[in-house]
Amino acid sequence: MGESSAKLFSACGKVILLGEHAVVHGENALAASIGRSAEASAAWADGESGALHLSDGRDTWPVDVGSELDQAFRALLAALAVDRPVSVHAHVRIPTRAGLGSSAAIGVAIARAIAGLQERAADLSRDTLAATAWERVFHGNPSGVDVAVAVHGGCLSFSRRDGATPVPIASVLSLCLVQSGPRASTRAMVDAATAYLRAQPDGGAAILSAVRDAVGAGTSAVERGDDTGLGNAMNANQRVLRQWQLSTPAIDTLCDAARMAGALGAKLTGAGGGGSVIALAPGRERNVLDAWRGLGFEGMVVEAGVAG
Ligand code: MEV
User: Fold this and answer.
1) Per-residue pLDDT tens for 15-69?
2) I need a surface site. Which of 153, 238, 262, 273 has the fewest CB within 10 A?
3) Gap between the Cα atoms of 155 and 81, Å rounded
4) How far does the centroid of ligand 1 lie from the alpha carbon of residue 99, in Å?
5) Looking at domain 3-166, which of 3.30.470.20, 3.30.230.10, 2.60.40.650, 3.40.50.620 is its CATH number?
6) How far does the centroid of ligand 1 lie from the alpha carbon of residue 42, in Å?
7) Which pTM does this prediction carry?
């Protein structure tokens, strides 16, 4: 394909600030884009059927025919009614398997690249539909929050019923982020979280209600620019996630260390069972990264809520 001349299309990764897992069960989540993205370019392929190639910036490799990624690619092509072989190159600049929405971002970037090739005008609903078909192959029954952030960017409130609602924020949020260890599969964590709720005498109503309170308080705090309020909501949400058995000893240790180093709030983000931890520590980011480094974990600062 004429890779050098093909236009690049991008979509951003995300952090869930509040409400992961509960969002699968109909609650609102508060999520924000991060300043890291996936990019894709597309070209019509000659002759044979098209293919997806992935790149990490150094190496490029073809996705194996019949693999999960290939199946997701075919589902996305079907959703876009692509009837000619197409060759796509995707480059991921988001840490993968970390709960940062890399797969949704790749799906949206690919959908945009193909729509560009088809000379179709930008269409957020079409991007959402195509990337949702792609995501279903990996996650079974995703809530849609990852795709919503990849499509819209910025900070948003999301529920299955109402979709994405932009949440105005005064300025981007500076978050400390660290990988607590390898992440369990989202599908497995969602299944475990659902089983846990069902096993509760109240069907999980108390857990969902506690998350609802944290998300409500945190969303108002973000709108007011109240970092302390957001930090408190993150801590409250993490307590529930821990009770819900979605945290791990490493996540708990990293959250405690962040708070000791001055963070207003800290929690897991994404599916849990490993993966990423975020901490809100305005002006004390360096202290948090130093505390994590002291425990043998290398973190970074990411900007969240950058407009898409
Ligand atoms: C994954 O980023 C977030 C979960 O809530 C799953 C979902 O919303 O589909 C764990």
Assistant:
1) 999 999 999 999 999 999 998 899 999 999 886 667 899 988 888 999 999 999 9
2) 262
3) 31
4) 8
5) 3.30.230.10
6) 28
7) 0.93
